[in-house]
Every structure is written in C-alpha cells, then in structure tokens.
Amino acid sequence: MNTEVTKSKIISSLFWKFMERGGVQGIQFVVSIVLARILSPEEFGKLTLIAIFITISGVLVQGGFNTALIQKKDADEVDLYSVFYLNLVLSSILYFALFFTAPFLGLLFEDPQLIILLRVLSLSLFFGAFNSIQNVIVQRNMEFKKLFFSSLGAIMISGPVGIVMAYTGFGIWALIGQHLTNQLVITIILWMVVNWRPKLLFSLNKVKRLFSFGWKILVSGLIDTLYNNLRGLMIGKLFSPAMLGFYNRGEQFPSVIIININGSIQSVMLPALALNQDDRPKVKSMMRRSIVTSSFIIFPMMVGLAVIAEPLVKILLTEKWLPAVPFLQIFCASYALWPIHTANLQAINALGRSDIFLKLEIIKKIVGVIILIITIPFGVYALALGVLAGGIISSFINAYPNLKLLNYSFLEQWKDIIPSLIHSLIMGACVYSIQFFGVPLLLTVMLQITVGIIVYIGLAIIYKNECFTYLQLTGKEFLKEKKRVSKIRLGRM
C-alpha cells in the first residue's frame, strides 16, 4: 500500500469516526439533556455509582486482548475465535460476581435500590463480549463506517425508549432501559454488518501469546479505570448521590467533546501507527500531526465551553443543575490536556512497548492517589481540582518515554501546540466580555459562540497557523481523491 492510499484511508476513517462519535454522541448528548431536565441529580448520581462497577468489569472483559488483536500484525481467525470465547467466559464470571455482591453495595451506600439496579445493568457485560470481535475487525480494517451505522441505529431506538420511560414516571429505570437498549441494538447491527461468525475453535497457545502483550494493557486499563472511578465512589459515599450527579454532569460536557474529537483521532491512529511501527521517523511524524491537529480543535472548544458554562447550564439543564458549573469549568481545563496524553500513549502501544505503558500507569496512579488523599478533607470541588493537578503532572510522565523512543520531547510537543493555546485564550477573553452586554441569556450564548468561531479562525488565518493550513490542504486533497474515485467507478459502469 503506497503512502497516498494510506493517507486517504486514514482521512476516510477519521471522517466516519467523527461521524460516529460526533453525530451519534451528539444525539446521545441531546437525549441525556432531555433526561436531565426530567429526572433528578440524585437519580443520575445513582446510575453513575453503579455504572462504575460495570465499567471496571468491562475493562476486565475487553481491556487487554482486544488491543493485542489490533496491535498484532499477523492475527488470524483462531486468534479471534479464542478471544471471543474467552470474553464470553469472563463476562459470565463477572456478571455472577456482581449479582451476588450487589447486596454489599446496597449496604455500603445505605440504599437497597442499588441491588436490583446493579443486577439488571450488569447484563450489558454480555453485549460487550458478543460484539468485541466485531469491534476489533472494524478497527483493524479501519472500517469505521460500520461503527457509525450501528451506533446511529442504536441511539435512534434507545433514545426515544429512555425519554418515553422518563416521561411516564419510570425514574432511574429510564436511564437503565436506555443504556441496555442501546447496547443490545449495537450488538445486533454489528453482527449484521460485520462478516464474521465464531466457530468452535479455541487455542490456549494463541491466548497465551496475546496475553503476553495484552495483560500489561489490561492491568494498565484496570488501574486507570479504578483510579478514574475512585473519586466517584468517594463522592457517592462521603457526600451524596446528588453531588455525584453534579460532578458527573459537569464532567460530561467536556468529555463528550473529547470523546468525539480526540477519541476519534486516536481510534484511527492506533492501527495506523501499528502498521508503521518499524519506521520510527514516520511514527513520530504521525504522532506529531495527531497532537497538533487535536490541540488545534480541542483547545478553543475547552476554553469556550468553560467561559459560557453558567448560561449554557441554565439554558440546557435548568437552574437545578447550577452546582455542576464549577465542575464543568475544572474539567474543561483537565480534558484540554488529553491530546498530549493519548497521542503519547498510543505511540507507545503501537510500538509494542506495553511494558512502558504499564509502568507509566502505575507511576501516574501513585501520584493521583497521593493527590486524592490530600484533597479529600477540603471537599468535593477540591477533589475535582486534584484531577486537574494530576493531569498536568501526567502530561510530563506520558511524554517522557517518547524522548528516547521517537526523539520527540515534551518541550518539542508544547512548542507544536502553543500557538493554538494562545489563540484559544485570546478568543476566550473576547467571548467572556460579551456577558456584560446585557442581552437575553440565549442571545448571549449565541453571540459568544459566533464571536468565538470568528475570532479563532481569524487568528489562525492572520498568523498562518500551520495546522489550519494543513487541514485546508488535506480537505482539498481528500475531496479531489473522492472525485477521482467516483469518476473511475462511473467509467466502469
């Protein structure tokens, strides 16, 4: 495969990944806003609490082996069959573990309702096991168009289910019903569009080889998930489910943007980097492009969202959710660092250095736990600030190995993204000043968004931002390539 074809395929994959993450998650976000206006912060807090245990179990089911299958160049059908059956066994074991330990959760948080909620929501583990190999195949072949249609179909069905249940008085069960319906429909559609079916084949030797790489990713993912959800458990236990609902809702706004944009880029970059893992200069070039592009798009969004947080929450969620505003602003600053985190870690994984990946996770989590212990006595907002402090420190830790692996230092990375950061801060100052105009709330937000876009793009044009120029040229090349392919197809008809 030549370089031009590879570039075209990467751009095409990015387009469909953006469509899946941006379009589909955008609809999911709208659904969650409707549900938040109907349901209470306490009900969202309860869902967040039990979802922590499902998320941790999900990492155990899919965490390491799926990444190992994507990274392994010569993965064959027996590898896929073996991991599929292993995931089914693990999901069964974990489901029954959660089923029988649910009463302890209800006792710990003094809420008997959590028992039945956990037992029902845990059924989603089986859906994750059933569609795990389809997800691997899609990512290996960079066929993200299939993920888009499966996710779109799922939200178009599950969204109305959740909203109707909420309006008809089902309370928290509306959230449970919406989640399970979504996972079920995704699984059904992926089995329809991905031409893979399991056979009665299993190789313990194949599993062992994958485990030699995957266990480090699995442990890393488990440590990361436990750490990321530890604060949620602490807030739910030491404060209240309602406060956990505010914390979670404040995090959701910036996380939707990060998942859509940075997550899309990194989902495509892992298989692309893995294909070129033997060419270190090319891996560095691709990683640099990933960091620069992600930062150029994410920085202005995070700064802008932090500035308009209060009026936005009033308009979308109503005033009952205003305590979520400080969390939203703190998490905007924290998530702005994600392009550096994920690009560095994806490069390390693509090079097959899961040993380094695991060491980094252990170091970061030790630092994070220390910060957590220090911030607990100062309240829930201090816990959120601790996440930001840990993110800043982690950006140094994640970048350090790539100085040796790719000759790409932390200082060089920041030199690449500093223009976008400066332009974003200038834009943020302009947007913030609009609130003093004394116009109605909705008009204020609309003006802020419009001015923010104009100022940021204007600065990129005036100062000839390298990433902005690259995106323009890449877009033109992509459209030109699409036209050329269309002409060839028409000529064959």
From TrEMBL:
Membrane-spanning segments: 22-40, 47-65, 85-109, 116-137, 149-173, 180-198, 290-309, 321-345, 366-397, 417-434, 441-463
Membrane topology summary: Multi-pass membrane protein
Localisation: Cell membrane
InterPro entries xref list: Poly_Biosynth_Transport (IPR050833)
GO cellular component annotations of the record: plasma membrane
Main location: membrane
Keywords assigned: Cell membrane, Membrane, Transmembrane, Transmembrane helix
Family (UniProt): Belongs to the polysaccharide synthase family.
Name of the protein in question: Lipopolysaccharide biosynthesis protein
